[in-house]
Each structure stands twice: as C-alpha cells, then as structure tokens.
Specification:
The complex is a heterodimer. Chain A contains five helices and 31 strands. By secondary structure, chain A is mainly beta. In chain A, strands 2, 3, 4, 5, 6 and 7 form a six-stranded mixed sheet that branches. A four-stranded antiparallel sheet of chain A has the order 10-9-8-31, with no helix packed on it. In chain A, α2 crosses α5 (145-161). Chain B is mostly helical. Chain B contains 14 helices and three strands. The chains are: A mainly beta, B mainly alpha. Chains A and B meet through α1, β1, α4, β6 and β7 of A and α1, α2, α5, α10 and α11 of B.
Chain lengths: 441, 363
Amino acid sequence: MRRVRAIFPIALFLLAVTANPGRAELFVDVTGPNFEPLPIAITDFYGNDEGAAQIGRDITQVVTANLERSGLFKPIDPRAFIQDIGSLRAGPRFGDWRVINSDALVSGGVELQSDGRLRVEFRLWDVLAEQQMTGLAYVSTPANWRRVAHIVSDAIYKRLTGEEGYFDTRIVYIAESGPQNRRVKRLAIMDQDGDNHSYLTDGSTLMLTPRFSPTSQEITYLAYVNDQPRVYLLNLDTGQQELVGNFPGMTFAPRFSPDGNKIIMSMAEGGNSDIYTMDLRTRQVVRLTNDPGIDTSASYAPDGRQIVFNSDRGGQQQLYVMNADGTNVRRISFGEGLYATPVWSPRGDLIAFTRIHQGTFYIGVMKPDGSGERMLSSGFLVESPTWAPNGRVLSFFRQEPSDSQGRVRSRLYTIDLTGFNEREVATPIDASDPAWSPLIP
Amino acid sequence: MNPVDTILPMRTGYLCSFALHACVLAVAVYGLPLFSREYMVQPSIPVDLVMFDDVKEADLASLPEISDLTPQDRLVQADEIAPQVVRPNDLAEAVEDQEVTELDSVEQAERPDTPPPDSAVAPDPSTLTALDDLAATATPLTPEAQEAEAEPLEPVEEPPQPPLPSSRPETLQLAEAAEPEPEPEPETQTAQQVAALAPPMPQRRPELPQPADRADRNEPESQEPNRLASILRNVQENLQQPQARAAPSAAQPAAVRQGEAASSSRLAGQVRRQVQPCWNFDAGARDPASLIVEMRVFLNPDGSLSGQPEILDRSRYLSDPFFRSAAERAQRAVLDCQPFNLPRESHSLWSSLLIRFNPAEAF
C-alpha cells in the first residue's frame, strides 16, 4: 500500500510530461519547389504631359528589359492589362491584376518639374497580399532618365529576390576587328544592357584583360607599348592614365583587391611566373608565391582574406586557394583538364573559372572548398568569366571556330549562376575579355 | 528499522505533500480553470514600423495613413530609407528643396560620354596624358538616390475583387525539362467522396488501394530526378552532382505512416498537394538549402484564408533579405492556391496549419 502511494506521484509526473496539450494544429511539410520566373506587370510610368509620358514609357521599357533579361522575372504582356494607367494613379484594383496572374505590379509616375529637373517615382505592389512592397522617388536631370531606370530596376530586383541589384553597372571589354593575323583591339565600355557604347582607345596599342576596380571608376589593363607588356591604370572619370609600374618581366592578369588599394598580378622571370601584389598608394610590391610552377591569374575573395589562382605546380594547371599573405596554399580543383582564370564571386560563395578538356572549353563554377563543381557553358572557345557585382550573373566571351575565309566571330554572353538564361550581349563588333563594373555610386 | 515505522508517524505530512504535488501536476496538465486556452485565431494587430530618425518632417505626410490599412495588412515591414550620403553642395540644395517632399537630387550622372572613335587618343605611357575626349566631357559622378515614399494615394474606391478560383498555368521549369505530372486531383476527390459516404473508421480500407496508385505514378515521377538535377545546371554530365536523392518520395504525401491518425495525415497530404504547384523558389539564392520557411495559416471552413499567413521566424525575416524573399514566395504560394479543397466536416482538424516550405532536398 505504501509503495502504491510512493509511485503515484511518479506516475502523475510521467503522465504530465507525456500528455499532449492538444494544440489542434496540422503540420504540413511542403517540398519540391518549382522554379518559375516571377510574373510581374510593369505599367507605363504616368506622365502628365507628352514629354513626361514619353520618358515614362522609355523608363518602363528599360525596366522591363532589365528584369526580363535577368531570367528571374516574366513581365506580362501589356496588352493583357485590365486596369488603365489613369485609374492606377488612385491605387491598384488588385483583382484586375490577379486575374491576369500577376504576382507583382509596378506603377510609377514621371514629372518634368518647373526647375527643369526630372522626378521619377514608382511603387512596387504585392498583388496577392494586396499591399505596397516599396515606394521610392528620384530626382535628376531629364537626360539621365536611363540611369534612373536602371536604379529603379535594381530596387525592384532587390526587393523581390533579396539579391543586390546589378543593372546600374557597366561592362568594359576589348572590341576586336580585323582578320585573325592582324587583329585590332580597342578598349570599349557600355552599360550592362549594351547601351551607351563608346570606345576608349583607338586600337593602335594592343590591349588585354581589362579589370574594374571594386570601389572607384578605374580599370587596369595590360597594354603592349613598343612590344613591352605593361599594366596601366585608367580613371574613367578623368580619363587619366598611368603606368602601374615598370617591371622587368612580363606582367599579365592584374586585378584589384576588394578595398581597391592594391592590385594583384603575375610577373614572369626566366620562364617562372609568380604572384605579386602592389599597393597603389605606396607602390610597394610584395611577392606571394615562390615556386617553380607557373602561378597566375589571381583573384581576391570579397573579404580580402583569401586568394584563388591557378598553378601548374602539381603537374597540371589547377586551382589553388591561399591566404592573402601567401600562406596555406591548398589545391581545390581535382577534375580532368586544365583550370584557369579563376574569379571569386562578390557574393563569396562561388569561384568561376575556365576549363579546357579534350578540346572543349567550359565556363564553370565551384564552391571555394572545391565542391559542387558545375559547368555552366561550353563551346569551341569560351573564356574569361567576370561576375556582376551581386555575384549572381556571369559574363564571358565565346569565340566560334574560324570560317572558310578565316574570319572568327567573338561575342560577349551573360549567364545566371544556375546555368540558365545564357544570352548574347549586343556589341557593335566582335568582343572579348569582359569586365563588369561595381554598382555605379 | 522497518520502513513502515518511519513513514507512519509522518503520514499527515506525506498526505499533504502528495496532495500539493498532485495539484501542481494537474495545473501543469490542464491549466488553471480561470484562463481559457485559446491558441488559435488570434489575429495580431497590424503594426506599421517606420524609422522616424530617417524620415524628415515632410516625409510624414507621404506615409500611408494608418486608417487606410485594412486588417488584412499584416507583415507591414519597416520602410527602409537609405542612409543619406550628403555632400556639401547637395546639402545646400537639400535646404532649398524642402518643399519638394522627399529628396536630394540624383546628381547628374554624366558618364564620360561617347567620344567619336577617331578622336580617341592612344595611351602614351611616357607622359600622363589624359584621353582628351574623356576629360572634356566627364564630370564627377555624384549621384544620390534618396529613397522616400511618394504622396499618399487616395483611398481605393473599389472593394477588393473576390479572388477568382485560381487556375494556375502549368508550371514550366526554368530548364527545358519534362513538365511535372498533373497533380492527383482525382485522388483527392475520390477520397473526399469516400469520406462523405463512410464513417471515420472504415475510411482506412479505401486507402489501401492508394499505395498501388502511387506506385503507378512512380514511373512518371522517375522524371523528377532529371528535373531537379538540372536545377543547378551542369553542362557536363560526367562531373559529380549531388543527385536528387529521395526526390520522388519527397513529392509524395507521407501519409502512409503506420499508427498515425489517417485523417490528419491525409489532410496534410491534401494541403501539400494543393500548395506545392503554387510554390516557386529561386534556385540561385545564397545557400538555398537553408531557406526553410515555416508559417502559420488559418483557414475558414470553406478553405479560404482567414487573415494573412504568419511567418514564424520574424527576426530572420527582418534581417536576412534572402530569407524574406523566400518567405514571401512561400506566402504567395498559400495566397495563390487558396481556397483549399478540404473536407468541411473535419474543419477543426485543419483550421490551423503549420506549413513548412523546405527546399533542401532539391539541392
């Protein structure tokens, strides 16, 4: 009897901890997502007079093209819109937009102010939740409407995907013309959508591998002057150009450090190529690798603490990662073929590279530890990947085999890091060696 | 000493102790009688978060009026206003522009404009020569984008249209892969008919043929690994790619669990099948396998949504833009695919849902 009493509290305790309080909530585990682009309706930005309305339509066109080109959005055909722009000024009738299966809606207005400036406002609406997601306004000069359109695109992109935008950027590249044996190479620059194109040089000097500074509107590139290859720094705002340094050996593949203060490059002496950094302020040169193999094409991680480069010290050209001071060198690629031109994504989670295997070129990505290797594109010659500043989109160039008359075709392409949405970038003539700028400040 | 002899003198003490312990345990299990346990359907009060230190006086007029927000407007997030990068010349302009409600100007971002190609100057490294054309036309780039809201809209006159029955177009993969097999709608309906006809217990028997039906669907679902493997596209198939493991089973309802109440697991499967076609995900997001979104959803007896879905991890929602984007996509899945087709008589079982959107298996 006593023992029964003794265990009764224990039994009650066990009952208490095992008893379900009885919350009637059904748990549903949903897996297997779809990967459809987000349907979005982008209406013409309203303008109260014809001039403003035309700018509004132009802005809408640029925004629509940007978002569609990213591959993550599916702009809905304006002919399907039910609500007109005029009534949209008073607010969206969400039912009208839901009916055409739009998940998001962009409405906006353009005003040419009395002081001559342009004011652009837009609102991004969540059609299903029936609320505004973001609303922003910008003031600028009328001639600057295209940049405003890119900034608007970036704001929409960022709000809906969580990624930083990349539309307000430029691409610098080498424009090529002429036959293969007498190729004329000029430095050229354009907006990321191909507009605003201009040549920076006239082609009398051979130029290669332009690279953008991550912090300022400067580029480095390699130019052959009197057959001597040298690294130059060009300021796009002022047009000033300076020689980075006079090095005894060949220098190639210069890149900036993430803080923009150093460049990292390879120098070749007596057939051996090693990696050096140079501080742009102090002009101090530091050697990072010291081995008989050919080490080249270095690229910093976005936090500036690691460097990826390619080296044939293991017998075959492969990718290696080391600390920024040159210590702890470790190999990360082990696949078949040759690995080259590694570029660390600004997002930090991937490294892009060129790979050559059995006569075919590939553009690929892998994680910084070497895992998750994927080939995104392949071809007769695809090379020189460069990341957009948000680390989501890559640009590279593709060259076709020469035809019967010896002509080649070389063009720039962009591709999403998922491997989809490969698109050609429209350039006036052949193009190679693209470099993507950071977001324009 | 006999244990009974030690206990008997302290009998009263033991009885009191036992009684008090029993009371505490009863309270722990059943709750105090004065307070009702109402966990469900407590709509949270919508809160409009605004960072006042970033909003100038003039901006307050441009914020939506609190009265305009309907009770449906949950999850109103803080309107982020970019930190203002003020330069001295713009500060002067800002003072002038006070009556313009928002902004400092996006300064003319005059890009170094197109010089005619033939006038471009070749680089001359021996002297610091400016490329003439660029120097002539370039002005420093000092654009500024002050973010603020525009004027408030007039209250929307039209009442929101009732949501039309969602007829979602067939989901097309980003890759050109086989389209997913049509979801087993007939199966839901037959199950519902069975539920209408038979009392709860015999429902178990009609379920037995279902594993066979699912086995048939396994064959078309063998296309699933290809679809999922191609999400992160790999041009060269030889290279190792984590194959979609257990992907077909992930798409299947896990309702065939022994010992679990058939109705609740079957209901979960019905909800899952109806939500999944509407759920889109960004395969290229950063660390996609970690973007697991859990939300609480309340449903009316007709299967429509009662209030807005509530994201459980609020702090991550506010701090991680990738997670917020994934959470909004999950919300859209629920908003788009409602009203759900569920047996009305068991509404108490599915009035409150905890839905977890888990993309991890696809990566």
